[in-house]
């Protein structure tokens, strides 16, 4: 394991099993936050909205130096704006996987992605690596007309991920953004999500960026709009579980 970041040489563990997640009492850090956010917006931190309704880009934040009060205020901003992009996070991204896990655990118990490999010694990490995977992309487009696939992560859990982090390790210079049913109601909902550009926010990846979003109230999708033969897209995902979901009938 490289001390500063996850790399292609990191080991993967096979045949690892985890116990079922037991119910837990959750206290959302956003509820503790100072609504004026003085601990987050300090030292020249600047904010720029992606759209009027959702999405904010922050520059000047040092994630590795945030106090607990600052993390509370970051949680509040995420719940208010749904997605927060933190630019210029080289120090945080090189602080190492254990530091990143500990940071994310502040927002809730960490979720373990059950359908993919886990990095040795760091099971909450979910690694997304797209490099020279043209055959995989071609197979996907045999069944689909677009790479857009709106979804929640691990939504079947009783207490699914709420706060989600994506940290970019390598990205293309351009693209790589995170942005027919027989049942009439389902078709309406799918069309509403896919065509509702007035409540979507598209994030363009830049080097040393970290994205955090509220998985409880949003859907997300990646976009295959880059050439993986030329440049890779390599990032990690960490997610904190939150409160129990409720089904209204």
Automatic annotation (TrEMBL):
SUPFAM superfamilies per UniProt: Clavaminate synthase-like (SSF51197)
InterPro entries in alphabetical order: AtsK-like, TauD-like_sf, TauD/TfdA-like
Record keywords: Dioxygenase, Iron, Metal-binding, Oxidoreductase
Domain TauD/TfdA-like: 48-178, 180-238
Any Pfam family hit: TauD
Gene Ontology CC annotations of this record: cytoplasm
Family: Belongs to the TfdA dioxygenase family.
UniProt keyword annotation of Transport present: no
Protein name: TauD/TfdA-like domain-containing protein
GO molecular function per UniProt: 2-oxoglutarate-dependent dioxygenase activity; metal ion binding
PANTHER family, sorted: ALPHA-KETOGLUTARATE-DEPENDENT SULFONATE DIOXYGENASE, ALPHA-KETOGLUTARATE-DEPENDENT TAURINE DIOXYGENASE (AFU_ORTHOLOGUE AFUA_7G06030)
Required cofactor names: Fe(2+)
